[in-house]
Design goal:
Serine Threonine Protein Phosphatase 5, Tetratricopeptide repeat; 74% helix
């Protein structure tokens, strides 16, 4: 359901009034309509001229008079409230704010009252009038930026936010507001990453900012990485430095501790995030949301045992905490306890059957436990409950693969690709096309497999797994051997000591008839393989057989035959080569 302007403004402006947060903005155009009938001052105020002593006295007298009028209206408002005359009280409160718009406390209190009564036009009118005064504080301009932004006047919102920064460059409030303005413009198609980055650099350049500024800046910069991940390498150390300094100050305010933990989480500093959340739990003992977050942070930090203890404690207090079951299942999956994972996913689904991802998680656990039929039943339930989507088709393919129905799996993946093209093109990545390639290859559709592998490599040219797979497929079929070796060499450039890639190169040379050179590469592959690999042993056996060394050939073929849980086609090939031995 879309939020109306009124609801959005209540959320965004209310949060700014209560917690000094801010919202979004942009630049004015000549056609911009005045929202309130007033003429807003949107240009930066001119620098104040130095007054002579008499003018200073007059100005001070005027300021005193304004404060007196403001307090008189405020007193009248308070008296009206006591008499139960709410409408009259609100009118007096408005007059108090307008009489002295530099009185931040009164203006924000009146804004809060107007928001509560959904009198949004009056909020805008008050803020415009308040910010006309050159002494209006930065927070007023930031709040005006929120109001304009939520009204869709991003041009005016941007200038209001810029004024907030100009008035208080050492306050994070204006920066936050302007970043949110830029982000809202980006949703409309504007390109604002350079402006956001320039603004962040300006914030980073502030001398000795307070801890709260540093924490908020760290969060803003981490959010920017989400928009431009190419900046991660340069920004993450700077973010880490800000967060470390804030953490070293030993904060005691829960909100700041939570923000520091969130910042560490955003840059994947797992252990530091867990430490911050532990401190937050001490500040807010027994808080269920913090307990859950701590369990998750511990799990992500690799402290599975501690995370599990917290999750079990949560379930003891609240057996209906479905998220705890989900996280316990994730821990069990990490420890290859697939039956336990499935049990917890089933419990999570019972408690919250509307979360589709839980069904896919359960399917994954069942497939890992080699229970394809059960997985198919769960997927069928998800298909009946939710609209058709990419993941339904994708997991149908995974079930078909587990059942070795490669043609059906390929059909399912083609369907997933079609859905992704129409609904979510980001799904069309190198991994999807690699899986389509391997499935087509296993279905015996080699030309189609080649097409998908090329698409995978096109999406990610250094994707060694796809480079090697296509090269090996050609080598095994005795096709395109020169190109196969080039692809395998590209894979080896990414992973020089990979035994599987060395084996592929050896096999391509073998197919070219370069048996001795192939054997050298195959022995390198053997050296890089810690555990026995049936195909490497098989290839060594075939090479030694070709070199008329049957004793060595039998040694490696016997090793290959002794390995359990190998693909049926490899097993058949081992037996066929063994029969060729004298």
């Amino acid at each position: 359901m879309k939020m109306t302007f009124r609801n959005q403004f209540m959320v965004f402006a209310g949060s700014l009034v209560l917690a000094a947060c801010a919202g979004p903005g942009a630049e004015p155009n000549k056609e911009s309509a005045n929202l309130t009938g007033e003429q807003p001052v949107i240009a930066p105020p001119p620098p104040e001229a130095k007054l002579d002593p008499e003018a200073e006295r007059i100005a001070e007298d005027a300021a005193i008079e304004r404060r007196i009028r403001s307090m008189a209206h405020y007193a009248a408002a308070t008296a009206a409230m006591e008499r139960g005359q709410r409408a009259e009280a609100l009118e007096e409160f408005e007059q108090a704010a307008l009489a002295d718009p530099t009185n931040e406390k009164i203006v924000l209190e009146v804004v809060r009252m107007l928001l509560a009564r959904k009198q949004f036009d009056k909020v805008l009118s008050l803020l415009v009038k308040a910010t006309i005064n050159p002494k209006a504080p930065a927070k007023m301009h930031a709040l005006l930026a929120v109001a304009y932004s939520q009204k869709g006047k991003l041009d005016l919102a941007r200038i209001a936010a810029e004024n907030a920064i100009r008035k208080a460059p050492g306050s994070i409030l204006g920066y936050k507001t302007l970043v949110q303005v830029y982000e809202k413009e980006m949703k409309g198609g504007a390109k604002r990453l350079p402006q956001i980055r320039k603004l962040l650099d300006k914030a980073f350049a502030q001398k000795k900012p307070p801890i709260a500024f540093q924490v908020e800046l760290a969060l803003m910069a981490a959010g920017y990485i989400g928009l431009d991940n190419t900046a991660a390498k340069e920004l993450q150390p700077r973010i880490r430095k800000l967060l470390d300094a804030a953490w070293a100050s030993k904060p005691t305010i829960p909100l700041m501790i939570e923000q520091i933990g969130r910042g560490y989480r955003m840059i994947e500093a797992r252990e530091e995030a867990a430490a911050a959340t532990e401190a937050l739990l001490k500040a807010l003992p027994g808080n269920p949301a913090v307990l859950m977050q701590l369990a998750q942070d511990l799990i992500l930090a690799g402290k599975l045992k501690e995370g599990r203890i917290h999750l079990e404690a949560i379930l003891k207090k609240n057996p209906r905490a479905w998220r705890a079951h989900q996280l316990l299942a994730a821990v069990a999956m990490d420890e290859d306890e697939f039956a336990t994972a499935a049990k917890h996913y089933r419990e999570a689904i019972k408690l919250n059957p509307r979360i589709e991802q839980l069904y896919f998680d359960l399917v994954s656990a069942l497939l890992s436990d080699e229970k394809a039929d059960e997985a198919q039943k769960v997927l069928g339930l998800a298909k009946r409950k939710f609209k058709p989507n990419f993941l339904q088709a994708y997991f149908a393919a995974m079930i078909s693969l587990e059942k070795r129905d490669f043609n059906q799996a390929l059909d399912d993946l083609r369907r997933a690709e079609t859905i992704a093209k129409n609904a979510d093109p980001t799904r069309l990545n190198h991994i999807l096309y690699f899986q389509m390639g391997t499935t087509a290859e296993r279905a015996g559709k080699f030309k189609e497999a080649e097409k998908y592998f090329r698409q995978s490599i096109g999406k990610k040219p250094d994707y060694a797994t796809a480079l090697n797979y296509l090269g090996y497929m050609w080598a095994d079929r005795g096709e395109n051997l020169d190109e196969a070796i080039k692809l395998i060499d590209r894979a080896l450039k990414e992973s020089p000591d990979n035994g599987a890639y060395l084996d592929s190169r050896a096999w391509a040379l073998y197919k070219q008839g370069k048996i001795k050179e192939a054997l050298e590469w195959q022995l390198k592959a053997l050296k890089q393989t810690e555990e026995g690999d049936a195909e490497i042993f098989l290839h060594l056996g075939e090479m030694y057989l070709k070199l008329k060394q049957p004793k060595a050939a039998r040694e490696y073929l016997d090793k290959a035959a002794a390995i359990k849980d190998i693909e049926p086609d490899v097993k058949a090939r081992i037996q066929a080569v063994l029969k060729q031995l004298p």
